[in-house]
Amino acid sequence: MKHNPLNILVIEDVEDDYVLLQRNLKKHGLWKYGICVENIEELKHELYTKTWDIVISDNSLPQLNALDALKITKQINADIPFIIVSGTIKVEEAILAMKEGAADYLMKDNLAKLIPVVQREAKEARNRQQHKNLESDFMTFIYRCYHDLRGPIASLLGLVQIAYSDQTNLQQFDYLDHLARNVRKMDATLTQLLQIFAIREIVPQPETVSLAEIFEQCKKKLWKDYRVGELEWSLNLEQEEAIYTDKFLLKTVVEHILTNAIHYRSPARTLVIELSYDKNATHIELVLKDNGVGIPMSVLPKVFQMFYRGNEQSTGNGLGLYIVKTAVEKLGGQVAISSSVGIGTEVYINFPCIIDNSIKTKKLASFDYS
C-alpha cells in the first residue's frame, strides 16, 4: 500500500542515528521533509513555525528528555503523534510516556517495527483531521440553515396567527393548531442546533457562579414555558460554595436536564426534581435526580447521541442530552446517567472548578410550585 510522505520532526543528538532513521523512512516512502533538534528552544521553534505530521524522539538527550519533549509538543499541538525511539528506556518511563500521550515507544535496535507504527499513526492522524473538517463543515451548515430558515419560519407562524383570527370553522382550527405545533417544533430544533454551534465555538469565560441562582433561574424559565401542574423542586446544598466556571455553559447543562425531566415525567405521581452536589479540591459533581418514567437499560448507551430518540412516541428532537454532553465537555468535564424504568433518572456531571469560599448560601428547602 502506498503511503503519503510525511514531514517528520526528529529529536536526536546522535547524527548517525538520525541518518539511519531518515534512510529507513525514505526507503519506505514515508520521508518528505525533516529536521533534527536537540533542545527545548529548537523544538519550540520548529513546532511553532512549521507543520509536522509526526514527532520521533530519543528518550534522553543532554539538554532534553522524551517526557519533557512530549509535554511541550502536546501543549503546542495535541494532535501530532509522538513516538519514542530509544537505545535504552525503562519500563516505568515508557508507561509514564504512554499515559502522557505518546503514541508508541520502540528500541533503536529494532527499527523494522518503526515503519508500521509510523504508517498507523499517520493514518489515524489523517482520520482525526478529516473528522474535524467534517465537524467544522457540519457546524457551518447548521449556522447557515438557522439563518436561512429562521425568517421563513417566523413568517409562517405569523401567518398562522392571522389565519386563526379569520377562522370560525372548528375543524380548520385543529388543522392550524397542528401546523403551529410542527412549525414551533422546527423552530425549537433550529434554535438548539444553533446552540450546539455556539457551544462548540465559544471560549469558556469563567466567573463566580452560584448554583442556587442558576437553579432558580432555570426553574422560573421552565415554569413559564411548561406550566407543569404538580411539581416539587429540591435543592440540596448544605452550604453552597460559589464556584468559578462558565455560567452560560453550566446553565445550559442544568436547563436541558431539567427540561428532559419535565418532558418525561410520570403521569402517576407528582414530579420531584432534586439537585445536589459534592466537591473535592479540584472538581465539582452535580447530581440531578427525578422520579419520572425512567429510561430502559437498552437505551442508556445511546441517549447522548445527536438526534437519538428512545422511541417513536418521544416528542423531543433528540438534541437535549447531546447539548448537555457537548457543554459539559467544553467545561472539561464528563457526564453519566443511570435510570430505572418506573422509578426515575439520575444525571451525574463532574467538571473542574475553582472554589470561591467568600460566597455562601443557605440550604433551600423543597417547595411545591403547583
Features:
370 residues, 46% helix, Rossmann fold, single chain, disordered C terminus, Heat Shock Protein 90, transferase, alpha/beta, 3 domains, 14 strands, 9 helices, 7-stranded mixed sheet, 26% strand, 5-stranded parallel sheet
Could you explain how this protein is built, in words?
By secondary structure, the chain is of the alpha/beta class. The protein has 3 domains: 6-130, Response regulator (Rossmann fold, 3-Layer(aba) Sandwich), CATH 3.40.50.2300; 131-201; 206-368, 2-Layer Sandwich (Heat Shock Protein 90). The protein has helices spanning 15-27, 40-49, 66-76, 91-100, 114-165, 170-201, 211-226, 247-263, 320-330, and strands at residues 6-11, 31-37, 54-57, 60-61, 64-65, 82-86, 104-107, 206-209, 231-246, 271-279, 283-290, 334-340, 344-352, 354-368. The strands form 3 sheets. Strands 8, 9, 10, 11, 12, 13 and 14 form a 7-stranded mixed β-sheet that branches. The chain has a 5-stranded parallel β-sheet with strand order 2-1-3-6-7, with helices on both faces. A two-stranded antiparallel sheet has the order 4-5. Strand 6 (82-86), helix 4 and strand 7 form a beta-alpha-beta unit. Helix 3 packs parallel to helix 4 (91-100), helix 6 (170-201) packs parallel to helix 9 and helix 7 (211-226) crosses helix 8. The protein is elongated and about 90 Å long. The model is unreliable at 355-370 (pLDDT under 50). Residues 144-355 form the Histidine kinase domain.
**Sheet of most strands:** 7 strands, mixed
Helices, by number, come to 9
Shape estimate: elongated
Percentage of residues in helical conformation: 40-55%
Which H/E pattern describes the elements? Answer: EHEHEEEHEHEHHEHEHEEHEEE
Distance between the termini: 68 Å
Structural class: alpha/beta
Amount of beta strand: 25-35%
Query: CATH superfamily name of the largest domain?
Result: Histidine kinase-like ATPase, C-terminal domain
Question: Rg to the nearest angstrom?
Answer: 27 Å
Mean pLDDT: 82
CATH topology of the largest domain: Heat Shock Protein 90
